[in-house]
C-alpha cells in the first residue's frame, strides 16, 4: 500500500507490454493486408506516382512470401474509380481520377483516368506484378481511402474468423491510416509493419507511426513480426 | 491547343478553388460537430487531461454560439466507456478507462475510471459546462475514436438531410481525425476549423492539418467559416 | 376538446396519408433499384431458377424504361459469389453456389457454381439481357442478401444526393426484403412496386407486402409510381 | 458415377444436416440476444402493446436463466426514441413514438411518447422487470428496427469474440427479423428460438420462420437449444 508510485517511463513500459501481450498473433486467426500497392500509384508514368513505394517493396514482398509459405491469408486492397460512382475522392480531391479529354495533357493535378477500372497502362489500378495475387487470394477494391467502407473486407475477414491484421502498403497518411483506424475500431488487433509502410513526406510518416503506436496498433519491423509468428508455428509443430 | 502547361502552383490553386466551390456550405444542410470537449479530457484532475483544449475553447464556443444563433444544428460527441462493453480502446490502449481498485493510485497510465458512463467528478465524460448542450441538441456517445462507428450519428445527420459538417474539438490526431476520415468516406463535405481543433503535440497538429487539407476536408478559420455562412444567410434574407 | 375520438379506420387512413406525404418522390433525388434480376436466378437451366421473375419482368422493364426516359438513375444489384470469399450464404445456406466437382450432377441443392463471378452459361450472375445496364448505370455486386452490406451502394446513392428509392426485383422475402430493411434503416424513403416484386410462394409474397406496408415503405403499383413522378415532371416543366 | 440421384427430400435433409453442423453452438463464443422485451411494447396500457409477448415470456425467461447459469452472455436490445433524433420510424411509420400534446388523447395511431428515453409509465422503453438486466449485462438501445444499425452491438459482440447468436424476443416480422438479417449478413451463426419469438398475426409468424429457416438461421425450440449447449458443457467438464 505504501508502494513507490511508478515513474512515467515505467507506466509507458507497462502499457507497451500489455499491448504486445494482447496483440500476440494467433496463427490461424491472422491475415496480412497489402494496401494499395498498385500500378496507378507506382508506375513511373502514373499521375499519382509515389516513388517511395519501391523502397518498401522488399519488406512488403518478404511479408507476402512469408505469409504465403506459412498459410496466413494474404488480402490485397486496391483503390479504384468508376465514372458511374462519382464521389468527393475524385472531384474535388483527386482530379487525376477523372477521365481526360482526348488530347488534353495528363499528369499530377490533371484529369488522367488514374485508377479507373479497366484503364490500361500506367494508370491501371491492379496490384503490381511483383506482388501479383495468387489464385485463392482475395482482392478488395474500394472507392474511398478506408478499404472497409463500402467493401466486403470485413465480411471476408470475419467469415474466416480473422482477429489479427498485419498492415503493409501505402500511403501511410491516407488509405493505410484510414483503413487501420477502421480496423482498430472494429476491434481487430492490428500490427503496422514499420519498414513496410510509406508515404511521400518523412515527417508525415513519423507522425503517423507516432499516432498509431499510442492508441491504434502495435508497430513492429517485418523481421520482428516474422520471428513472432515463426516461434508460434514451431510451437505448434512440436505440440506446444 | 498550344496552351502553356500550368505550373505546379497553378494546379494546386485550381484544385483549392474547386475544393472551396464544392464545399461551399449550404445553410439548412450544414451541422456543427463538437468532438469530445468533455470533462474527462479537460478537467484539471482528469487522468487524460489535454490542457490545450482550453486554448481552443474560445473558438469552439464562438462557432457553437454562431450556429445556435443561425439555426445550424449543433451535435456533440462524447467518448464513453462501459464495463459491459470491454474493447481494445480500454485494454490495452487506454488503461485510464479501466475501473481503479479501491484505494489504488489513479492518473495517467493507471486505471482511473476515465470516461466511464455514470462516473462522477473529473473523470466524467459529459461535455463541459461551458458548452453545455441545450434542449433539442443531440449528444452522440461513442465507444471508439470514430464517432460514426457504433453510434446513431450517421442516421441523425441523414434524417435531417445534412450534407456539410463543420468540425471542432479534439484530439486532432485521434477521435477528431478518425471521425473526420469516416465523415469524408461517407461523402459529407467537411470543414476543419483550424483554430478550433487541437492536440497535445504541435508538430502532430501540423501533420494532421497537412493530411486533411490534401485529401479529406477544407481547412478554414472560425472567422472564415462564419463569414461564409453569414454571407449566405444575408443572401437568403434579401431573397437572393 | 370534446372531439369525437377517431376510429381505428380513421387512424389508419391518417397514417397512410402521412406516409404518402413524406414519401412523395422528389425528381432529382430519386433512384430506381433493380434487385437481382440476374441470369443465375432466371435462366431456364439455372439451379436457383425463380420462374415467377418472368411474370414481373414487364413491370420491371416499364419502370426501367420510364426512369431512363425521365433522367432518374437506375441502379442494378447482383448477388455474386467468389470462392475467395466463402461465407454462410454459400455453405450451408446455398449449396448451389459452391463449385461442382467435375462430372458431378448439378441443380437445386447441389454444388452448381450458381452466381460465381466469371461463371458462364445459366449460372452467370449478370443482369438479364432484357434489362441490360446501359453505359453510365451503376451495377452493385454484393455477397449477401442485403445489397447495402459490404458494397458501395450507400456511397453511390449519397454521393448523388439520392433520398428516395424505388424497389423492383426479387426475391421479395430474401434479397429484396433485406435490402429494403437496410435502406429504410438508413432513412431512405422507399417505395415497393407491388407488380414489380416477386418470390416463389404467393402467401410469402403477401406476408412481405403486409410487413413492409406497416412499418417500412410505401407500396404502390408501377402505374401509380409513374403517375406520381410524371405529374411532378410536368409541374417542373411548366415552372411550378 | 452411376449413383442414383438424390430426391428433393434427401437434398433438403442433407442441407439441414449441414446447417446444423455449421451452427453447432460453441460455448464461449455464443451469446443470447433478447430483442425488445420492453415495457412500452408489453405494458397493458402501452400504445404499442403486443399481447402475445406474454405468451413467449416463459420460454424467453427459461433461455435467459439457462444462459446466466451457464456463463453465456445475455445481451438485451431496446427500441428507443429521442426527439433530438427524428427519423422515419417515428414520422410517418410510428406516430405513437411522437410526444403527445398536453391533454390530447393517446393510444394506438396517436402521439403517445411511446419508447421515448426518459418516459415514465407504460410507454417506458426499459426491459420488463421479469427479465431485468443484471449488473454486467449489456443493454443496447437502437433507434431503428435493426439493432445493429447505429449501435455498438457488433463491436460488443466481436470484442468478446462471439460467433453464435441465439435470438428470442419480438416482433418477429420487424425488429427481430431486421436484426436477424443483419446478424446473418455479418456471418454470425444464428439460432431463432421458435417458442421464444412472436408477433401479433399467426400467419405472419409462420411466414417469418419459413423465410428464416431456408436461408438465414437455424430454427430450434428452447429445449433443443438448451440440450445442445448442455451436452457441450458436460463434455467440457469431463474433459472431452
What is the element layout, followed by pairings?
The structure is a homotetramer of 240-residue chains.
Chain A: H1 8-23, E1 30-35, H2 39-42, H3 53-70, E2 74-79, E3 138-142, H4 153-159, E4 164-170, H5 175-185, E5 189-198, H6 202-215, E6 218-220, H7 222-237
Parallel strand pairs in A: 1-2, 1-4, 2-3, 4-5, 5-6
Helix pairs in contact in A: 3-7
Observed structural traits:
240 residues; homotetramer; globular; alpha/beta; 7 helices; six-stranded parallel sheet
Account of the 3D structure:
The structure is a homotetramer of 240-residue chains. The first copy, chain A, is α/β, with parallel strands linked by helices and 240 residues long. The first copy, chain A, has 7 helices and 6 strands; from the N terminus they run H-E-H-H-E-E-H-E-H-E-H-E-H. In chain A, strand 4 (164-170), helix 5 and strand 5 (189-198) form a beta-alpha-beta unit. In chain A, helix 3 (53-70) packs parallel to helix 7. The longest helix of chain A has 18 residues, at 53-70. Chain A is globular. At the A-B interface, helix 1, helix 5 and helix 6 of A face helix 1, helix 5 and helix 6 of B.
Amino acid at each position: 500500500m505504501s508502494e513507490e508510485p511508478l515513474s512515467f517511463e515505467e507506466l509507458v513500459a507497462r502499457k507497451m507490454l500489455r499491448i504486445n501481450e494482447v496483440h500476440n498473433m494467433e496463427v490461424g486467426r491472422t491475415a496480412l493486408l497489402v494496401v494499395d500497392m498498385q500500378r496507378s500509384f507506382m508506375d513511373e508514368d502514373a499521375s499519382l506516382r509515389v516513388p517511395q513505394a519501391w523502397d518498401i517493396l522488399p519488406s512488403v514482398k518478404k511479408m507476402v512470401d512469408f505469409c504465403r509459405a506459412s498459410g496466413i491469408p494474404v488480402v490485397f486492397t486496391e483503390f479504384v474509380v468508376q465514372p458511374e460512382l462519382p464521389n468527393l475522392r475524385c472531384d474535388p480531391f483527386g482530379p487525376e481520377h477523372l477521365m481526360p479529354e482526348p488530347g488534353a495533357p495528363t499528369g499530377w493535378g490533371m484529369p488522367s483516368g488514374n485508377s479507373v477500372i479497366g484503364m490500361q497502362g500506367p494508370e491501371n489500378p491492379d496490384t503490381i506484378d511483383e506482388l501479383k495475387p495468387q489464385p485463392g487470394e482475395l482482392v478488395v477494391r474500394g472507392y474511398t481511402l478506408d478499404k472497409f467502407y463500402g467493401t466486403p473486407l470485413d465480411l471476408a475477414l470475419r467469415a474466416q474468423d480473422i482477429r489479427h491484421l498485419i498492415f503493409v502498403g501505402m500511403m501511410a497518411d491516407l488509405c493505410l491510416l484510414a483503413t487501420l483506424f477502421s480496423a482498430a475500431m472494429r476491434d481487430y488487433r492490428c500490427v503496422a509493419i514499420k519498414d513496410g509502410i510509406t508515404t511521400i513526406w518523412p515527417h508525415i510518416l513519423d507522425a503517423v507511426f507516432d499516432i498509431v503506436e499510442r492508441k491504434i496498433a502495435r508497430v513492429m519491423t517485418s523481421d520482428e513480426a516474422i520471428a513472432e509468428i515463426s516461434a508460434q508455428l514451431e510451437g505448434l509443430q512440436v505440440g506446444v
